[in-house]
What does this fold into?
Amino acid sequence: MAGRVQEQVAIVTGAGSIGPGWGNGKAAAVLYAREGARVLAVDLNRAAADETTEIICQEGGQATAIEADVTDSEQVQAVVAHCQEIYGRIDILHNNVGVPDVGGPEEIDEDRWDRSLAINVRSMYLTCRYCLPVMVAQQQGAIVNISSIASLRFIGYPCVSYAASKGAVNQLTQNIAIQYAEQGIRANCILPGLMHTPQIEHYIREGYGGDLEAMIQQRNQLVPMKRMGDAWDVARAALFLASDEARYITGTELVVDGGITCTVH
Ligand SMILES: NC(=O)c1ccc[n+]([C@@H]2O[C@H](COP(=O)([O-])OP(=O)(O)OC[C@H]3O[C@@H](n4cnc5c(N)ncnc54)[C@H](O)[C@@H]3O)[C@@H](O)[C@H]2O)c1
It folds into this structure.
């Protein structure tokens, strides 16, 4: 089923990857391009965005990289203006940027709380704020926001800022879905569970210092399917939600977790 988002223009935030391999944003950007979209790859790290666009261009797709911090209003406005300038429209807004943060209210200080909320939810508010007028003018658009199963329930350790910010992502998405439903704009979230990505390897190393392989096996065992998902599982769900196959789906929270939220621990 090639060409599922043919001729469309996709902005992907956090389109690079924090380390070698496939992060969620990088895989989504590449998959949209494989299915015919022209991609604007946005990242704080220019080299990471360039790596993604090089992969896309080498495969024969179309992509442009832009460096921007999506927590900054002016930089987000510049991204939207640049997308309009080079591609002339915005059909898909894929909000991937988000960072994990572990700790309860006494462990994380105010600066960390503010940082999590800024990166995980202010970023999505800003990109939606500035992309929506373009989508309204087109009477077409699909927003895909990357949330987490931590938005739904306690995930085994305290992570108040992460969980609160991802809960906010879900409601931001639902509100937009309803407000803009009559204007041809859909907004949905994906709630990944335990995914094996460079970001997670980084946080296991930083947070636990110990045996990465042992921690990976432990995470695998927590999942009913006995394995973590990967960035392509998230990307495929995003492609579906962004494409016309999901034309009657808006305001939903698509859980991509190998069944883990169905279990009781
Ligand atoms: N890996 C998992 O297990 C898991 C589980 C649930 C949800 N998620 C969600 O997936 C998303 C991250 O996925 P990923 O694998 O692409 O992560 P990643 O850490 O590889 O990040 C992708 C890119 O985002 C960029 N970035 C970070 N802050 C930015 C900012 N302010 N402005 C612009 N770019 C910025 C980084 O430079 C990086 O290149 C997050 O929203 C995260 O909460 C991941």
Summary: The two ends are 39 Å apart (CA to CA). The longest helix spans residues 110-138.
